[in-house]
Amino acid sequence: MKILKNITVFTLVMLLSVSTVLEARDKNVSNFSSTSNYVDSVGTFDGNKIYADVANNGLFLDYHVSGDSALEWPKGTGAHSIFQSALWMGATVNGSIRTIVGDYTQDMGPGPWGGDPLAAVHRIYKVEKSMLASPLDFADFQEWPVDFGAPWVDVDGDGTYSPLPAGPDHPEFVGDQVLWFVSNDGDPAYKLNFGTSPLNVEIQTTMFGFDRPDVFGDMVFLKQLVINKGSDDLVDTYMGLWSDPDLGYAGDDLVGCDVDLGMGYVWNDGDDSTYSTLDIGTPAAGYDFFQGPMVPCEDGDSEEVCPAEGAKMFGTRHPGMKNLKMSSFAFYINGDATYTDPSDENEGYFYLQGLRKDGSAYPNDIAGDLYDQKFCFYGDPTQTHGK
Ligand SMILES: [Ca+2]
Ligand SMILES: [Ca+2]
Ligand SMILES: [Ca+2]
What we know:
- With about 375 residues, this protein is mainly beta.
- The protein is about 10% helix and about 30% strand.
- The protein is built from 4 helices and 23 strands.
- Bound molecules: calcium ion (3 copies).
């Protein structure tokens, strides 16, 4: 039995939803009309060749902002690669399953747990290294929310944020551009998807990237701190990174995963009608876990899995702990008779475990005969699956 008592998480899953453009746009219309006021602050990551619409309720790639795909790449071309993406989380609490399912609707609200979701102080903050030249010109630099958990550098070590130029302190520039916001699922009014009781977690999100001409310029990094702010233990906790990728034209997209790399990805079945008009080579998009959730090491773990110096988490080593890699890769297709969207927390919790929504394993022709059928489409994408 796995129990989440405070900050750590246990199983990391990648889920990919494959939808068509039309189905996504149907959802677009219905979501806007029914829940148009649930996003209280939006922002944009545009610090390199990626342009991404972000919402402070935890939908870190959110189509509601523009009404179209959330992530444009390369920035300025009009070609998009990801429609929508957010964190999923599920656990058993006092014998009942509770979930946060962020897809086209969200199960979280803005701000810290117990805070005012509508307060302007809980907006999305955005800073850039270039602001160091004139820090007084930028409210987000001056008002950087260190008291809520935003990463910063306390240059004079006095525990108080005294920003430049009046003081010596500044936000921590983990990238050339850094966004920070906090969300939580403590208010039942914001659990708009499956409507389970709250897990009572707070999630602090740092989104950052590097403005470089090499491949780093094509990446956006996401760091999420999950804190159990409630009084209940979260038992058998699973976390998933859910994505609806639309790589240009959505109707020809294929997905797969690389178990060794711990990566899920999307590419096109032949030339894509959107990307083929651009001179950028063959497009693809992927999600990789560079620093997975931290869990206790187990007997029999190799040195590679559980290094002597321990897991690395937020800049600190934790001996006896390890970072998880991707532990399953599930998928579903909007509108498919068998592999379709989860309709309640039970189905969502199964997907989080790398199972089909009814709790059964994915069949061999999808998940092969390795890895307990927990990784769909792990084969070489240029060959027939599994070979
Ligand atoms: Ca899709
Ligand atoms: Ca200080
Ligand atoms: Ca495509």
